[in-house]
Amino acid sequence: MNYYILANPHAGHGHGKQVTDELTSYLTHKKITFRLFETHQPFDENRLMADILAQKTAADRILIIGGDGTISLSVNALPENQAFSYIPAGSGNDFGRGLGISLKDTIATFDNIHKAQPKEIFMLNYVSENLSGLATNNFGIGLDAAMVDATNKSLTKGVLNKFKSGQLAYLLSALHVVLIKKPFGVTVNGVRFDKAFLFTMTNHSFFGGGIPLAPDAKITDSDIHLIELDRFNIVGVFALIPKIIQAKHFASKHVHHLVDKKFELVIDSDQLVQIDGEIHKLKAGQKLTVTTQKRTILK
């Protein structure tokens, strides 16, 4: 058995390289055979995964190292029946948190992978006229997407990532975006929201670098959790932020939590959407359908 490793050395502002170097040194010492495929530019994952799939045998394993963007792009390039393993090495690492994988001990994580049996997990499967694919973390519209867009463009994120403060980068962007983002109208599974502000679908707990947006969500079942926050007075919105961090936000009358196996929705106006931290646009009037897809992981 060989390990085919797809690694993003740039993840987490260089943390991906540290994790990869530590692991490959360990594998060499243990005489565990592997082949390393490293990304060199954005969206290399699709090309590298195609190379891996062309070379590996049924007995070999695929191991992905990187952040939330890396795992999302890699899984989207994998056939539905192909098992994989994952070691988090990014700044937010929400997928790793959702899986319950250690974010600190690379070797212990690999040792668990090496002896692991296949387990079923579920990912969001989204389809609209112009968008389709899998989301390993969240699909967010409105404030969610504006926050991610602002964070990705911010110099602050790079500085804070060096100090292991990815969550703080999201929160600082949130404080700015909350002041300027306008609400939008959306109809989902027959339910109408006229002043939607934050609108996020997920099937595990975490968002924005460890914020427990959907505390009861589990990646091992096919339930989709939808969290909608109405736009209301700005003081109230800011007061709700610490409650979200403490997983106490469902007590607010302005927060709505829906759970279903399938969501169909239409928005009233064009909106930015974020899918695992990548920004896209959803047009007004286009139906979006979100279900789940079963995948296999060794962890």
UniProtKB/TrEMBL annotation:
<dbReference type="GO" id="GO:0008654">
    <property type="term" value="P:phospholipid biosynthetic process"/>
</dbReference>
<dbReference type="Pfam" id="PF00781">
    <property type="entry name" value="DAGK_cat"/>
</dbReference>
<dbReference type="InterPro" id="IPR016064">
    <property type="entry name" value="NAD/diacylglycerol_kinase_sf"/>
</dbReference>
<dbReference type="InterPro" id="IPR050187">
    <property type="entry name" value="Lipid_Phosphate_FormReg"/>
</dbReference>
<dbReference type="Pfam" id="PF19279">
    <property type="entry name" value="YegS_C"/>
</dbReference>
<comment type="similarity">
    <text>Belongs to the diacylglycerol/lipid kinase family.</text>
</comment>
<keyword id="KW-0067">ATP-binding</keyword>
<keyword id="KW-0418">Kinase</keyword>
<feature type="domain" description="DAGKc">
    <location>
        <begin position="1"/>
        <end position="130"/>
    </location>
</feature>
<keyword id="KW-0444">Lipid biosynthesis</keyword>
<keyword id="KW-0808">Transferase</keyword>
<dbReference type="GO" id="GO:0016301">
    <property type="term" value="F:kinase activity"/>
</dbReference>
<dbReference type="InterPro" id="IPR017438">
    <property type="entry name" value="ATP-NAD_kinase_N"/>
</dbReference>
<protein>
    <submittedName>
        <fullName>Transcriptional regulator</fullName>
    </submittedName>
</protein>
<keyword id="KW-1208">Phospholipid metabolism</keyword>
<keyword id="KW-0594">Phospholipid biosynthesis</keyword>
<keyword id="KW-0443">Lipid metabolism</keyword>
<dbReference type="GO" id="GO:0005524">
    <property type="term" value="F:ATP binding"/>
</dbReference>
<dbReference type="InterPro" id="IPR045540">
    <property type="entry name" value="YegS/DAGK_C"/>
</dbReference>
<dbReference type="InterPro" id="IPR001206">
    <property type="entry name" value="Diacylglycerol_kinase_cat_dom"/>
</dbReference>
<keyword id="KW-0547">Nucleotide-binding</keyword>
